[in-house]
Structures are given as structure tokens and as C-alpha cells.
């Protein structure tokens, strides 16, 4: 078989991933610390993330739908739980009943469907102010879940990444439900909620973005390490004459003669046009600014002053999530989950 490598790669730091999970776990006091691995582990590969976190002691995992759960079924044991956040549609029922994963029931229809099918333990989502998925906290939640074996009662914080009145209000509402609804465990905090202190931890926390290098609140700064390091290969080095333009729509005008490197990276890979004129690559400790408009498959950077960079060399994309979000206008979540399938994914 002919070996093949792509001109794009994601280098992923296992030590940073585990360090992030351990820090997040400590913030929850004695609470269990799970992991959201939906969207294929936020783009890193759900199975690879799950295996590494299992080795570190994580035992609770969350995906969005049953297609994601099916990929991870072999890793679920009596000691390891996998929950499907979007519940169970009629189309999912046969798969869900045969699976070792649990549905997170979100609607009265889902609850009725699960009861009628004779389903076993489940999780239940209650909406305490986000108005997304879940039973309305103002309804008679105990009556609605009567007859279910609830493994975990969950809610989700809407805006814990900023200071405001809604988050403590959600905490108050969920705390009241804890005394009304019988469940084996209770879970409220996402990554940002974990940073707000142990009052939000309950029995289990559910970090997502912070596991993968995102900084959800100021309290996490300096404690969360970068996990994902995209790299791209130089396709061509070329000289641009003063007065010439670079890229589509001639948005960059060379004020003087300059040297650029054209890279095998573009918006089809998740390096979106918001980085045009704002993003950068790194080589030998030097930051190389993006020049011109990013296209589907190609990006140009200024390599003046670095004569050794040539065709075939690799450059690191400046992709520390907080900084990249500020440069591009994208959220840290979009930056991670948008990284495309054309990257070779390499753990170190």
C-alpha cells in the first residue's frame, strides 16, 4: 500500500487534554467530571479523546445523537456511561433500546415514547432559562418524569461565560428541582459553570470547550492549555512586485517588493475568511501575517525576512483559541469544530 500524507495536519497534545480535564475536575470539588465529546470530540476525534480520558479516570461522556453514540458503543461498559443529549426520536428507538448509551429525554413526547417502549435508565433535561431543549422548569416536572428511572437530571447554563443575573437564577431553579425530582445524580455546570465555583458542580460537571483548549471565563486563563496545533505546508514561495495585488478582489496591495508563501489552507478547511488580513502563521518564533483574502484552498502569508522558507516547509497556524477568536470574529467553538477532514490528525 502506498503511504500518503496530507499537506495539512493537526497536532494534538494529549498531555494538555488530560491536564485540562484534571484542572476542571479539581474545580468541582468532589463532583465527578464528565466530558462532552459531541461533534466528533469537538473536531479532535471522539473515540481518541474518549480513550485518553478513560485512562485518566473520566467515566461520563456526552454526545449529541445516536449516530455519534454508535461509533463509541464498544467503549461503554458498566462503569462507563454515554449519554445522548438530543434524546430519542421515533426513528432512533430501536437503536436506543439496543444501545448501552442512555437517552437524555428532553420532551414529553420523548418521555412517553421511552415509557411505552419499556426503556430502562435514562437521563432527563430540564430547561431552567435557556429555552433550548428540556422540560420547562415551571411545569410539574416531578409528575412528568414519574415512572422513569432517572440516572441524571440535567440542565444547561445559558450564559455562564459572562457575568449577569441569569446564571445564579438558573442555579436557584435547578437547586429547587433537586429537592423535588428523584434522580441518582444532578448535573448543571458546563465549562464556564465549572469556573464559577463548586456551588454549580452538584454531582457531576460536563466540560466541553475547556477540555480542548478553550478559555470560557477569566478564572480559567493560565490553567487551560492549548490542545490543537494546526500546521500547513508551503506550496509555493513567490516574489510580489510593488504595486501588484494578492488574492481575490485585489484586497491587498503590495507597497513594496515582497516575498510571500502560498499555503495549502483555506476556508474549506475551516480557516475562514474572517482571518483575511488578521490571521498569522509562525515559523522559528516569527509571526507571519496573512496577506490578501483567504480562498477555498489557499492562503498567502508574508515571509519577508525569512529566506529559508520554501516549498514543502511546514508552518504552524496561530490558533490559540482566545487569540484566534479575537482575530477572526469567530467563537472558540466554531474555530475547533470547523477544522475539516483534510487535516491528518496526529496525537503527541
Describe the overall structure:
- Helices cover 25% and strands 24% of the residues.
- The strands form 4 sheets. Strands 1, 12, 15, 16, 17, 18, 19 and 20 form an 8-stranded mixed beta sheet that branches.
- Helix 1 packs across helix 3.
- The longest helix is centred in the N-terminal third of the chain and has 14 residues.
- The radius of gyration is 23 Å and the shape is elongated.
Helix and strand topology:
Elements lengths: L7 E5 L1 H14 L4 E2 L1 E2 L1 H5 L3 H11 L3 E4 L2 H7 L8 E4 L8 H6 L3 E4 L2 H10 L4 E6 L7 E2 L4 H4 L5 E5 L11 H13 L6 E3 L3 H4 L9 E2 L22 E13 L4 E2 L5 E2 L4 E6 L16 E4 L2 E4 L9 E4 L11 E4 L3 H8 L3 H6 L6 E4 L1
Parallel strand pairs: 1-20, 2-11, 3-4, 4-5, 5-6, 6-7, 7-8, 7-9, 9-10
Antiparallel strand pairs: 1-12, 12-15, 12-19, 13-14, 15-18, 16-17, 16-19
Helix pairs in contact: 1-3
Summarize the structure.
With 348 residues, the protein is α/β, with parallel strands linked by helices.
Average the pLDDT over all residues and give the rounded result: 97
Give the biggest beta sheet.
8 strands, mixed
Radius of gyration: 23 Å
State the helix count: 11
- Percent of residues in beta strands? 15-25%
Proportion in helices: 25-40%
- Indicate the low-confidence ranges by residue numbers: none
Count of distinct strands: 20
What is the terminal separation in angstroms? 25 Å
Q: Could you say which overall geometry the principal axes of the C-alpha atoms support?
A: elongated
Multimeric organization? single chain
Question: What structural category arises from helix and sheet content?
Answer: alpha/beta
Amino acid at each position: 500500500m502506498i503511504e500518503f500524507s496530507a499537506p495539512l495536519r493537526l497536532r494534538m497534545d494529549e498531555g494538555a487534554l488530560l491536564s485540562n480535564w484534571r484542572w476542571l475536575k479539581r474545580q468541582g470539588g468532589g463532583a465527578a467530571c464528565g466530558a462532552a465529546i459531541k461533534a466528533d470530540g469537538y473536531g479532535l476525534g471522539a473515540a481518541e479523546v474518549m480513550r485518553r480520558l478513560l485512562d485518566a479516570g473520566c467515566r461520563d461522556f456526552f454526545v449529541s445523537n445516536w449516530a455519534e453514540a454508535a461509533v463509541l458503543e464498544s467503549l461503554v461498559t458498566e462503569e462507563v456511561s454515554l449519554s445522548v443529549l438530543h434524546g430519542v426520536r421515533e426513528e432512533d428507538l430501536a437503536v436506543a433500546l439496543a444501545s448501552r448509551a442512555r437517552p437524555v429525554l428532553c420532551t414529553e413526547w420523548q418521555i412517553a415514547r421511552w415509557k411505552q417502549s419499556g426503556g430502562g435508565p435514562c437521563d432527563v433535561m430540564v430547561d431552567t432559562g435557556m429555552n433550548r431543549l428540556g422540560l420547562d422548569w415551571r411545569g410539574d416536572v416531578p409528575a412528568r418524569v414519574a415512572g422513569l428511572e432517572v440516572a441524571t437530571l440535567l440542565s444547561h447554563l445559558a450564559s455562564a461565560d459572562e457575568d449577569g443575573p441569569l446564571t445564579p437564577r438558573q442555579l436557584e431553579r435547578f437547586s429547587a428541582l433537586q429537592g423535588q425530582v428523584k434522580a441518582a445524580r444532578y448535573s448543571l455546570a458546563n465549562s464556564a459553570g465549572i469556573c464559577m465555583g463548586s456551588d454549580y458542580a452538584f454531582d457531576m460537571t460536563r466540560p466541553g470547550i475547556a477540555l480542548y483548549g478553550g478559555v470560557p471565563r477569566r478564572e480559567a486563563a493560565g490553567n487551560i492549555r492549548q490542545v490543537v496545533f494546526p500546521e500547513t505546508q508551503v506550496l509555493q514561495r513567490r516574489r510580489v512586485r510593488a504595486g501588484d495585488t494578492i488574492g481575490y478582489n485585489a484586497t491587498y496591495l503590495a507597497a513594496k517588493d515582497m516575498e510571500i508563501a502560498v499555503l495549502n489552507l483555506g476556508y474549506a478547511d475551516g480557516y475562514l475568511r474572517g482571518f483575511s488580513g488578521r490571521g498569522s502563521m509562525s515559523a522559528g518564533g516569527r509571526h507571519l501575517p496573512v496577506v490578501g483574502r483567504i480562498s477555498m484552498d489557499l492562503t498567502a502569508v508574508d515571509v519577508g525576512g525569512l529566506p529559508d522558507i520554501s516549498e514543502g516547509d511546514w508552518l504552524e497556524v496561530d490558533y490559540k483559541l482566545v487569540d484566534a477568536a479575537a482575530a477572526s470574529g469567530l467563537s472558540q467553538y466554531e474555530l475547533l469544530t470547523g477544522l475539516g477532514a483534510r487535516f491528518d490528525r496526529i496525537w503527541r
